[in-house]
Amino acid sequence: METREKIIIIGGGFAGLQLAKTLNNKNKKVIVLDRMNHHMFQPLFYQVASGRIEPSNISFPFRKIFQQSRNTQFRMTEVKEIDPANHKVITDEAEFTYDKLIIATGCKTNFFGNKELEGKAFGMKNTQEAISIRNHVLMTFEKLIIEKSRSDDGNWNIVIVGSGPTGVELAGAFAEMKKDILPRDYPYMNFDHLKIILVSSTEKPLAVMSSEAQEKSEKYLKDLGVTFLSGEVVTDYDGDKVHLRSGKEIPSNNVIWAAGVTGNVVGGFPEEKLVRNRYIVDRYNKIKGYDNIYAIGDIAYMETPKYPQGHPQVANVAINQAKNLGKNLLKKSQEEWKEYEYDDKGSLATIGKHRAVVDLPFIKFQGFLAWYFWMFLHLMLILSVRNKLAIFFNWMWSYINKDSSLRLIIIPTKKNGTLQ
Fold this sequence. Notes:
Its EC number is 1.6.5.9. By secondary structure, the chain is of the alpha/beta class. It has 2 domains: about 5-110 and about 260-330, FAD/NAD(P)-binding domain; about 115-260, FAD/NAD(P)-binding domain (3-Layer(bba) Sandwich), CATH 3.50.50. It is built from 10 helices and 27 strands. The protein has a 5-stranded parallel β-sheet, covered by helices on one side.
C-alpha cells in the first residue's frame, strides 16, 4: 500500500520542472502532467524561429529527464479541470487524485481579446509556434520567387509587435538574416525593400530595463536597419495589413505578436481566486482558501512589500519559487516554512551578434562583453551537455560564416484531412 504523500505537478516549464527536480528521489510520490512530452527552453524560441538553432537543441524529453528517478512519473495529458473538493485532477484521458497539487501552467500569448489578431498573427510560447514562424517566413520568400510577385509591395515585411526582450531579440535576428543570409539564399531577389519593423507602445525598447539599456538597444536596432515605431498600438490585423491606433497601416503577411502574456488558467476555481489571470497565493505559494493547492511561476500572483503588484513573469522567479516550495514541502510537520522573497538578479537581452545589454544589481554594461555574458548564461541554463555543445557549435559556425544550415521548412503531413 502506498504511504508516501502524492504530489501532482501540472506543467513542466521552468517552475514545474524545478519543483520536480527539488523533490526528486525524496520520500514523496510525484507525478508531472504536461500536454507536451518535453520541456522547452523558452528564451531561445526566437533562434528557432529565425533558423539559428534546431528545435531539438532546446527541447528535453521528460521521460529522459526522469529516467533515473525513483519517485517521479510523467504523464502526457491535457488538464481540463480541477476538482478541489474531491482532490482530483481531470484530464482528457483520466482522473488523478492528489494529496497536494501544484499548478505550474505558466502563461500564453495575450491577444487582449482580439480574435482577428489571434487568428492571423503568430504567438511564440512553444516550440511548435516558433517552427510555424520559421516555416511561414521562409515560405513567403519561396512563394515570391515562384510567383515573381512584386517585392516592393510590403507584403513580405516582418512586423514584430512588442519591444520587450522577445520582440527585440526577434527583430535583431531577422535583421541579421536579411543582411547576411537571405541575399545568398535568394540571389535574384532585391531585399532592399524588405523591412523589419518593431512596433512598440512605449517610447523606448526594453522599457523594463535601465535607461542605458534602452538607449543602447535602440541604437543597436537602428544599426541593424530595424524600423522602430515607438508609441504605437496595434488595433487590428486582417492578414494583409497591420492597423495602428494612429491611423497608420503597415502591409505585411508576417506578423509576430510579442506584446504580452496572460496566465494559463485551469478550470475549477472561482473568479475571485484570480488577479489578472493569475492565482492569488500567499508567501508560501499556497492558493488562498485551499490547504493543499499551490501555484508557482508565471501563473502565481503574490503580493509582497517589494512587489505590491505581483512578481515579474520571468524564469528566475519561477525557478526560485519552485525551489522554495520544494524545500518547504520536504520539511517535517513541526518545522516552520520559509516565506518566498524574490531577489532580482538582473535582466539581459541580445540584439544580434556582438550586441547585448545587461543590467545587474551592481553593474550595467553593453556591447561585446555583454553578448558573451548573455551566451554564457544561456548555455549554462541548457539542461544537457549534448544540447549545450550543439548550440555552442551552431553559434560559433554562424559567427564565423554568418550563416547556418537550419532554414528548413517542415510542414506536418495530412492524413484523412487531419494533421499528423
